[in-house]
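chain below, 91 aa
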Amino acid sequence: MADSNSRSVEDIRHDLEQEREQLATAAESLRESMNVTAAVRSKLPVLAVGALGAGFFLAGGIGATARLLMRRGREGETKARVGRFRLVDRD
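prediction:
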């Protein structure tokens, strides 16, 4: 009957050292993939354009709403006027 534990101590130490190296390499790779700062820096131009577009869209929406609420020429009786703004009764 052959001994199932035929590996020498040196073989086991060599295998353990290889496993440690592989584990260190895998841990380093995982750290690099989890680096958010590098990912943001690589995509900074795209993110800046997106933020600019979103700001432009929101500002346009606010401006359009303000124009809708404060526009001149609405029907109704003018109750008060301050500069170019009017308070209009639309009953």
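The longest helix spans residues 44-70. The chain has three helices and two strands.
thats it, cya
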